[in-house]
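Q: I'm writing a short explainer about Na+/H+ antiporter NhaC for a general audience and would like to include a description of its predicted shape. Could you first generate the structure from this sequence?
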Amino acid sequence: MKDASVNERTIKPIRFRHGLLALTFLAVAMAFCVVGLGTEPQMPLVIGCLLAGGLAMYLGFKWDDVLESMMKGIMDSMEAVLILMCIGMLVASWIQSGTVPTLIYYGLAVISPQLFLPVAFLGTLLVGIVLGSWGAAGTIGIAFIGIAAALDIPLGMAAGAIIAGAYVSEIASPLTDGPVLCAAVAGVGVFDMCKRFLPIVIGVCMLSIALYFGIGHLADATEASAAASTAGLMGELSSAYSIGPLTLVPLIVMIICIAVQVPAIPAFLLGAALGLIEAVFLQGADFGVALESCSAGVTSTTGSAIIDELFSTGGIAEMLPTITIVILVMAFVGLMQHTGLMDSLIEPIASKLQGYASLLAGTVASGALFNIVMPDQYPAIAMSCKMYGDAFEKHGTPGEVWSNICNSASGITSVLVPWNTCSIYMVTILGVPCLKYLPFAFFCYLYPIAVIVLGILFSRQLGWKCMPRGTESVQRSDADNVAETTQA
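A: Of course. Here's the predicted structure. Afterward I'll give you a sentence or two in plain language.
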């Protein structure tokens, strides 16, 4: 719906073709620039905003209206921007404090090549429940990538298991941004939403673990070659850093903070501050250098090629490309929302999905499509909920059910799209191209499939009502009439 501040008498009728055209502008720009020319997503996003803004002005909006719409969208992304900056500082401080090196060291001591993939999936899953998908990948995910390199595990497989484990939190954790956003848009409790689909999440996780276990036993690396390669890296880590349980204090403290529902930004900042303290007092780092690294990133100079490549990362500067993408994405979404272009696109599509099976399948499929076109997880979640919420309500589907259905694809398929902000972040943090880890991120595409299949076959048994609203009340009224007649 258009902003109330706009004089509607000057606005031309906004049709479905206008919303579709604006979205097509962005999709074509992304395809041509990112896929065809190999550029970063920023410039096609700028082009998409310009073309959509031009369309809005053609429809009668003034430039001030277009600018205000984009600014509103950008303001909605400010918390995500601050969280990204905090993650950059956290990664840099935890490398310098020895937290990440210690995690790698201990992991090398206990993980075998055959068990690496299921352990990496489970380990990242557990951390992701409290730190979120990006926080888990930026902390324990980096550690697992280092372990994979030492064990001669293909990095595509390793990154796939890490990312799949991290993104379980985008469905099952009430502490992460995706479920919180989805619950807020749907107007339901985030804990109720996450609990409702927990059996399906557990089932898909068990299937993923079985697949990783099978792949791990087909790995080429042997125990002898793994032991030889890990022994050298463990020696280099212990000589470059002070390894020990004390270096894990920042991680433990931050997990406790999140578990007792301390907001994400203060928890990340506390973890980064503790990392800086340990970098100075445990690792002997210069405070000025350590502090600057939280901004500019760590430059590792241990002399070990693998360690220096792995640990030369982090800092706010490392997050800046992702931050600019988030800002531009939300500018486009704000423009679509506040000019009515999004509603013109949503309403005709939702009205055509009358059957429950088509509605469920269409919701999940379009969530993945939004991640391809938008390209960001948050607008994909918001658009899915806004597009299909009313249709599910008409079927009598509980809010905690349809909100999770909307989130089942839009929340986790984003990381499978090379030009999506989520994928770009993972590639930046883990150093593995999207197309290499995509085939092994099992949970991210098995879960949406499971939701569609189970929802169509067993919706009533699962408590997913698919009876049009009002039918039950009519049936009850008929029963009451019969009862009254019998009594008479």
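A: For your explainer, you could say: Residues 471-488 have pLDDT under 50 and may be disordered.
Q: Perfect, that's easy to follow.
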